[in-house]
């Protein structure tokens, strides 16, 4: 199918290209796709955009945002073909949401601080989604989120109605308490309780992170990188000293680990 080549393309061109790809004369692969078949693609492209942000790679960010935009266009086109909604309806919905949730910009509400803005946003969000309780607000947090992120959002919603520790000390004490309960479950060889208590430990650790204004998802991400880097150092030291890691004792390996830790 002919498509006029241009020096520069815009959003409308993207939508038209996606329509062509999904048409009977287009691409067999694109025609076969459904929301669920490209669900993982959407997640992957989003994380690649996030990686570009983390590495301050603007060229890559531009490319990855385009890939994310393609996913939006594909999902919208799939529903457009069914007559349910179009990408214009998607744009219409987000524009209306932004206007409604920014009455301090598009209306007469006074909100000259970030705190006031966020309080208004939450109140408007609950009203527009017909949420009458904070439990309903918690239940609205997407279950598809990474669990550390979901935990943070749920805890934040509980805190907004006063269900929260007064300081990080209370959150830390609760974490230590949950660790004790996990140890007891391990000592009792209680597999079901071990599962539950480990979940409580992780949830409590997120609570501590929230009080310290630490992004628990990012903290664990960086901890993974740190572990990998130090493990690489252990491997290198073991190779230099002729140590077979598979047969070496844990004490030997821990000694190498401590050496790498001190030097890094």
Provide structural commentary:
- With 264 residues, the protein is an all-alpha fold.
- The protein is 72% helix and 0% strand.
- The chain has 13 helices and no strands.
- α1 (11-22) packs across α4, α9 crosses α11 (191-211) and α12 crosses α13.
Question: SSE order, as H and E?
Answer: HHHHHHHHHHHHH
* Oligomeric category: single chain
Number of extended strands = 0
Count of helix runs:
13
Radius of gyration: 25 Å
The share of residues in extended strands comes to under 5%
Tell me, briefly, the overall form. extended
**Low-confidence residue ranges:** none
The profile of the biggest β sheet is: none
Distance between the termini: 58 Å
What's the average pLDDT? 95
The helix-and-strand class reads mainly alpha
Report the helical percentage: over 70%
Care to give the gist of this entry?
The protein is an all-alpha fold and 264 residues long.
């Amino acid at each position: 199918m002919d498509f006029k080549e241009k020096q520069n393309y815009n959003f409308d061109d993207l939508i038209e290209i996606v329509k062509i790809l999904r048409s009977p004369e287009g691409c067999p692969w694109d025609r076969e796709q459904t929301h669920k078949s490209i669900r993982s693609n959407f997640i992957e492209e989003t994380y690649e955009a996030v990686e570009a942000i983390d590495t301050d790679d603007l060229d890559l960010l531009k490319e990855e945002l385009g890939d994310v935009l393609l996913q939006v266009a594909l999902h919208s086109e799939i529903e457009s073909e069914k007559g349910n909604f179009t990408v214009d309806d998607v744009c219409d919905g987000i524009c209306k949401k932004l206007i409604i949730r920014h009455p301090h910009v598009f209306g007469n509400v006074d909100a000259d601080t970030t705190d006031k803005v966020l309080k208004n946003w939450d109140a408007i969000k609950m009203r527009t989604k017909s949420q009458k309780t904070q439990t309903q607000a918690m239940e609205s947090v997407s279950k598809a989120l990474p669990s550390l992120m979901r935990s943070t959002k749920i805890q934040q919603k509980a805190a907004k109605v006063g269900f929260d520790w007064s300081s990080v000390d209370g959150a830390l004490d609760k974490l230590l308490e949950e660790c004790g309960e996990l140890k007891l479950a391990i000592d009792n060889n209680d597999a079901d309780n071990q599962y539950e208590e480990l979940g409580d430990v992780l949830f409590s650790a997120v609570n501590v992170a929230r009080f310290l204004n630490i992004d628990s998802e990012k903290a664990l991400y960086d901890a993974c990188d740190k572990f990998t880097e130090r493990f690489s150092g252990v491997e290198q030291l073991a190779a230099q000293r002729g140590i077979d890691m598979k047969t070496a004792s844990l004490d030997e390996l821990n000694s190498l680990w401590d050496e790498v830790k001190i030097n890094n």
